[in-house]
């Protein structure tokens, strides 16, 4: 017999994605600091753009999380 498959909820998936992005954001921030210290403006600009993309992705995913949670609360109140 096959073991049951766990499928995370939309909210759990959003939180996991945000956590993953937070790691990338932290790594970007460290690299940005190093590029700034050594005066590598090309590397600095590249990493700043990556940081912005990761922050935007995290913010978008948080909006998805809020929508999923609001829908869940609305369902609970309707029943």
Chain-wise SSE layout:
Elements (H helix, E strand, L loop, with lengths): L9 H29 L2 H38 L1
Helix pairs in contact: 1-2
Number of helices: 2
Distance between the termini: 35 Å
- Which class do the helix and strand fractions yield? mainly alpha
| Estimated share of beta-strand residues | under 5%
Number of domains: 1
Main sheet, how many strands, which sense, barrel? none
Q: Give Rg in angstroms.
A: 18 Å
| Elements, N to C (H/E) | HH
Name the poorly predicted regions: none
Q: Average pLDDT, to the nearest integer? A: 93
Molecular structure report:
- The radius of gyration is 18 Å and the shape is elongated.
- The protein has helices spanning 10-38, 41-78.
- 85% of the residues lie in helices and 0% in strands.
- Helix 1 (10-38) runs antiparallel to helix 2.
- The mean pLDDT is 93.
- With 79 residues, the chain is an all-alpha fold.
- The protein has one domain.
- The protein is built from two helices and no strands.
Structure characteristics:
2 helices; single chain; 79 residues; mainly alpha
Quick synopsis:
By secondary structure, this protein is mostly helical. It has helices spanning about 10-40, 40-79. The chain has one domain (about 10-79).
């Amino acid at each position: 017999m096959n073991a049951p498959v766990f499928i995370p909820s939309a909210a759990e998936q959003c939180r996991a994605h945000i956590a993953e992005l937070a790691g990338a954001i932290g790594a970007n921030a460290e690299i940005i600091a190093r590029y700034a210290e050594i005066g590598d403006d090309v590397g600095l600009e590249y990493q700043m753009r990556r940081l912005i993309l990761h922050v935007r992705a995290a913010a978008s995913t948080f909006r998805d999380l809020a929508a999923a949670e609001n829908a869940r609360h609305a369902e609970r109140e309707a029943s």
